[in-house]
Amino acid sequence: KHITEEYAMTQRNKKFYSITEVAQLVDVSKTVIASRVNAGELKAHRISGKTIRISQDNLDSWLNKTTALAR
């Protein structure tokens, strides 16, 4: 499922993202993002109970590492 560029730009202005939002931004499944969080590859913050948020800085860092590995 593809997202619009406008939606992506709106989301980029946020400071924290849910797993669903990150999955939409990078065009992968929620399962992929959750597994990266659980493996410690993508740092996230547990707000309460099952609520997890990923900071913009942690997302950027993970994307930079992932991109570097793909080269």
Please tell me about this protein's structure.
The structure is a single chain. Helix content is 56%, strand content 15%. The protein contains four helices and three strands; from the N terminus they run H-E-H-H-E-E-H. The protein has helices at 5-12, 19-26, 30-38, 56-70, and strands at residues 16-17, 45-48, 51-55. The protein has a three-stranded antiparallel sheet. It starts with a helix and ends with a helix.
Please tell me the overall pLDDT: 85
3D shape:
globular
- Unreliable parts: none
Number of helices: 4
Please give the number of β-strands. Answer: 3
User: Percent helix among the residues?
Assistant: 55-70%
Identify the strand order in the major beta sheet.
Answer: 1-3-2
The percentage of residues in β strands lies in 15-25%
Order of helices and strands: HEHHEEH
Radius of gyration: 12 Å
End-to-end CA span? 25 Å
- Which structural class should the secondary elements be placed in? alpha+beta
Question: Which sheet architecture does the biggest sheet show?
Answer: 3 strands, antiparallel
Compact description:
This protein is an alpha+beta fold and 71 residues long.
List keywords for this structure.
56% helix, globular, alpha+beta, three-stranded antiparallel beta sheet, 15% strand, single chain, 71 residues
Task: Record the SSE blueprint.
Blueprint: H1 5-12, E1 16-17, H2 19-26, H3 30-38, E2 45-48, E3 51-55, H4 56-70
Antiparallel strand pairs: 1-3, 2-3
Helix pairs in contact: 2-3
